[in-house]
Design brief:
Elements (H helix, E strand, L loop, with lengths): L2 H10 L4 H13 L4 H30 L12 H8 L4 E6 L20 E8 L2 E3 L12 E6 L2 H12 L4
Antiparallel strand pairs: 1-4, 2-3, 2-4
Helix pairs in contact: 1-3, 2-3
């Protein structure tokens, strides 16, 4: 790692919660002036975070480790998150005789704009993957771009199968 990035990471550091948590130990132990110690640590931590937080962009530019937004490459995770539908959601119960029962999610042929975000199976919640098999009486939490796509998926999942 380049030295400029090391300096930036050391400037960012770990601040805030850890000193405050440590300052609660004297309070719990009942030490004299523990409340004053806690107040001093809290004040210094908050002040440090505020000063440091307002200078992060300036320090990054000064050290030459900041990239302009337009040049930053988009990671695979960011691409995936940007493709996740955000506007429509519906719970769909899968009856035992439905087309989707005993099929893997990848084999259902969902459109790219629609995903199964979660499956409720009995008392458990499952985060599905493409190899997850839909079982009778599953409740699927479906996310999609629009209501029309949701209706199409509901019709598709609940149609009689087998």
């Amino acid at each position: 790692m380049k030295i400029r990035r090391r300096f930036y990471i050391s400037w960012v550091g770990f601040r805030g919660a850890v000193p405050i948590v440590f300052a609660t130990y004297p309070l719990l132990a009942g030490i004299d002036q523990a409340e004053m110690i806690f107040n001093i640590v809290f004040f210094i931590s908050v002040t440090s975070v505020m000063i440091q937080g307002t200078t992060l962009t300036l320090v990054a530019k000064w050290l030459g480790v900041a990239l302009p937004e337009r040049v930053k490459p988009i990671s695979e995770t960011e691409k995936f998150i940007s493709e996740i539908p955000k506007s429509a959601m519906k719970e769909i119960s899968v009856a035992p005789a439905c087309y989707a029962v005993d099929r893997r999610i990848v084999d259902l042929g969902f459109p790219k704009s629609t995903i199964i975000a979660m499956i409720k199976r009995g008392d458990r919640y499952i985060t599905p993957s493409g190899s997850t098999v839909i079982e009778p009486n599953d409740t699927l939490l479906i996310l999609s771009d629009d209501e029309k796509s949701l209706r199409n998926i509901q019709d598709y999942l609940t149609k009689p199968g087998k």
